[in-house]
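Notes from hallway chat w/ T.B., transcribed later so I don't forget. T.B. wanted the structure written out for a chain they're using in a teaching module, and asked if we could keep both sequence and structure tokens in one place. Agreed to drop them here.
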Amino acid sequence: MSCCIEQSIIDQTIAFHGHSCPGLAIGIRAAEMAMAKMGKINQNALVCVTETDMCGVDAIQFLTGCTVGKGNLILRDYGKMAFSFYNRENNTGIRLVFNQQTRGAINQELIGLMDRGNRGLLAAEEQERLTQLRQEMLTSVMTLPLEEIFTTQPLTDRPPRGARVLESLECADCGERTMESRTRRFAGKTLCIPCYQKVEQKM
């Protein structure tokens, strides 16, 4: 079945991200599936751990309310199109993994054209074909049943803990205040990460 999210909400999601694309569509459907599987949930109790920094993360932010600032959107960039959603109130969770078969027969052609485009080699007719394929992919993602787009795995580990306010320490080199958990010790000094990287030659 097609996406159940109202078109007006989808339009707002596109406006938030800045453009419509297959990657954003994947995020829209991931948010839709998470909300369907997890039911009504307090927004502050919902946590998303995303394993990619792709366009779809913006859709998840907009549609679920999970954000970096609230500490309930956590980026672990493993380069996988996978999203884990947790309910902190009952310690349940589900991991969604994008099914690459969703891309269908056009996948290889699409990847080839995108690669040529990234290298500035596309001819005009190739650009038109790329635009057509991206639209086909977007339509496919937005209309296929959710069970065909994602494989699901129940999560047994506890949700990531909530954000904590920690003491800020002064970097011995630049003098800027830095969250204690993000400081490093070097030669008896407390340093922020950029200053530490300047002196630690292995970094």
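Follow-up for T.B.: The chain has a mean pLDDT of 90. Might be a good example for the class.
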